[in-house]
Amino acid sequence: METLTIGQLVRPRETTICWRRHDESTWEVSVGRNELLIICDERTQELVPGLRTVHVLHPQHGAVTCLLDELVPVNRPQHCYS
C-alpha cells in the first residue's frame, strides 16, 4: 500500500462520488476520472467496515471525502492504494 502524503496529487481511477458535510447535512459531489485532487489529511477513516476514506481538496468543491481505494497517484499512475 502506498503511504499518504499531505499535498500529494491524486485523481479518481474512474468517475466517482465524493461527499462533503456542511453543518448537519451531507452533499454528494460527482468527480470525474481526470479531475485532480490534493490529499489534505494523511489519516484514513472507515465509515463502513473495509472501506477506507480520506479527505481531499477539490478545486471547485473544496474539502471532500472519498474512498481511498478509488484514488490513483498522479506522479506514479501504475500504483494505487488498494
Would you mind describing this structure in some detail?
This protein has one domain. The chain has no helices and eight strands. It is mainly beta and 82 residues long. The strands form two sheets. Strands 1, 4, 5, 6, 7 and 8 form a six-stranded antiparallel beta sheet that branches. A two-stranded antiparallel sheet has the order 2-3. The radius of gyration is 12 Å and the shape is globular. The model has no long low-confidence stretch (mean pLDDT 85).
Per-chain topology:
Layout: E1 9-12, E2 16-22, E3 25-31, E4 37-39, E5 45-48, E6 51-58, E7 62-67, E8 71-73
Antiparallel strand pairs: 1-4, 1-8, 2-3, 4-6, 5-6, 6-7
Oligomerization status of the protein chains: single chain
Shape: globular
Order of helices and strands: EEEEEEEE
Query: How many domains would you count in the coordinates?
Result: 1
Distance between the termini: 7 Å
Count every beta strand, where a strand is a DSSP E run of 2 or more residues.
8
Sheet with most strands: 6 strands, antiparallel
Rounded Rg? 12 Å
Short structural summary:
The chain has 82 residues and is mostly beta strands. The protein is 0% helix and 51% strand. The chain has no helices and 8 strands.
